[in-house]
Amino acid sequence: MNRRNLMKATAATALFLGLGLSIRKPHAGSFEITKTEAEWKAILTPEQFAVMRQEDTERPFTSALLDEHRKGTFDCAACDLPLYASETKYDSGTGWPSFFDVLPNAVGKKEDNTLFTTRTEVHCRRCGGHLGHVFEDGPQPTGLRYCMNGVALKFVAA
Question: Which sequence positions are flagged as catalytic?
Answer without folding.
Answer: 147
